[in-house]
Amino acid sequence: MKYARLTQQQLEELHPEFINFLATQSITAEEWTALKKEKPEVAEDELDVFSDLIWEGVLSKVEYLENVSELHMHLFHLTEKEMKLLSVKVMNPKIDLRTQEGFGWFKRNFQSDFVEYLTASKAYSEDKNKDKFDLIQQGAVITKGDLYKWFDEFVE
């Protein structure tokens, strides 16, 4: 397995796609039921293959990721050739950017001496989607990039 198995909830939401996936494998509903019972390891393998296919599709379309912690924001723009990072560090230990109050403080003070910015870029490894997945595994979430775009204008 290249990525991670989808959660039960994700699999339930993707039930029609999973049925189509099984059909492409020439596995009927009856055969799937029997497979789960008689050869659970084969059924597990099918779930893993399906999960990887879904992840590949999602990751190939991801353009923006955000990883926000108490005092840091790591905003990623995933271009065709590289990963661009806008990093924000708040140097006020009373602030938690994950809260509405903390983010409100940040919006009022983003140009103060209590906020530092850093930009960087990095080429992908041989496996661009794995690089994106690794960021998600580290806590980043897929976004539309509104925060990154706003900062990108501000930082320039």
UniProtKB/TrEMBL annotation:
It holds the Pfam family DUF6495. This is Histidyl-tRNA synthetase. It comes from Flagellimonas aquimarina.
